[in-house]
Amino acid sequence: MNAPSYNFAYLDEQTKRMIRRAILKAIAIPGYQVPFASREMPMPYGWGTGGVQVTAAVLGPDDILKVIDQGSDDTTNAVSLRKFFIKTAGVRTTSKTAEATVIQTRHRIPEKELTENQVLVYQVPIPEPLRFLEPRETETRRMHALADYGLMHVKLYEDIARHGHIATTYAYPVKVDGRYVMDPSPTPKFDNPKMNDCAALQLFGAGREKRIYAVPPYTEVISLDFDDHPFERYRHDASCALCGAADSYLDEVITDDRGGRMFVCSDTDYCEERRETQPGKVEAAE
Amino acid sequence: MMDADSERPLLVAEGLTKSYGRQLGCRDVSFELYEGEVMAVVGESGSGKSTLLQLLSAHLPTDEGRVLYRMRDGVTRDLAAMGEAERRFLARTDWGYVHQDATLGLRMGVSGGANVGERLMAVGWRHYGRIRSTATTWLDRVEIDRSRIDDTPRTYSGGMRQRLQIARNLVTQPRLVFMDEPTGGLDVSVQARLLDLLRNLVSELRLAAVVVTHDLGVARLLSHRIMVMKGGEVIETGLTDQVLDDPREAYTQLLVASILPP
Question: Does B82 touch chain A (CB under 8 A)?
Answer without folding.
Answer: no
